Amino acid sequence: MSGLDGWQRSRFESEGIAHDVYRKGSGPGVIICHEMPGLTTRVIGFGEEVVAAGYTVLLPHLFGPRDVAFSVPRVVAAIPGICISREFTILAVGKTGRIAGWLRALARELHADVGGPGVGALGMCFTGGFALAMMVDAPVIAPVLAQPAAPMPIGSKRAADLGLSATDLDTVRRRAAAGCEVLGVRYASDSSVGTRFATLERELGDRFTSVELEGKGHSTLTEQRQERAVDAVLAFFDQQLRG
C-alpha cells in the first residue's frame, strides 16, 4: 500500500518545467516542498497532518524517489541529479533558482482554485529557501523555512546566503515590511543552516520569527521531528491563513 494512496496526482507545467503534484484535502492552500532525498514517507506523513488540520495540501515531486523511507545512500544518490539540473542552485550565491518561477505559478493556480487571503508555502532542508522565493510574485502569505540548507554552507558567504537574487531579496524585504510574516524552524546546533537565520533577522526584522530546537538533529518536521516544531508550523498557518 502506497503512502500516496488517496492523493490526487496531476502534472503541472510552467516556464518549460514540469513536475508531478499530489493533492489532498480542503480548505486554505498549502504547498509543501520535500527535503532530500525526495518525497519520502515521512514528508507524506507530515502532509497528511496538515490535511487533517483543515488545509488543501499540494506535494510537488521535485527530485529523487517518492514514497520511500529516508536513508543516507538515497541522499547521496540524489545529489548528482540536483547538481546538474538547471532548475536548482546548490552552490551559487545571490541567485534565485529557476524552480522558483514554477512554484510561484503553482501557488497562483492553487490560490485561484481555493480562494482565501493567500496560500502557505513550506520548504525543508535543500528546499527550505524556496518558500521565501515564492513570496516574490505569488499569493504566498505564510512562508515557512524548515532547516534551510541551500546554498551549501561552504564558507561564510554561502552560509549566510538566502538563495535569492538581489532583486528578489528586495521584494521579499518590501513584502515583509508591508506585513508578511515569515517563520523559520531549525535545530540550534544544526550547522547545515549556516548563519541564514541571522541574515533573515537582519533583513526582515521582527517579521521573522524563529523556532530553535534543543538537541541534535536536522529534519525538524520529519526524521527528527519535534512536536514543538509541528505545533509552531500549524499555528502559523492557522494565524496567517485563517486569522
UniProtKB/TrEMBL annotation:
SUPFAM superfamilies: alpha/beta-Hydrolases. It comes from the Bacteria. Pfam families: DLH. The keyword Hydrolase applies. Residues 27-139 form the Dienelactone hydrolase domain. The keyword Hydrolase applies. Keywords: Hydrolase. One of its GO terms (molecular function) is hydrolase activity. This is Dienelactone hydrolase family protein.
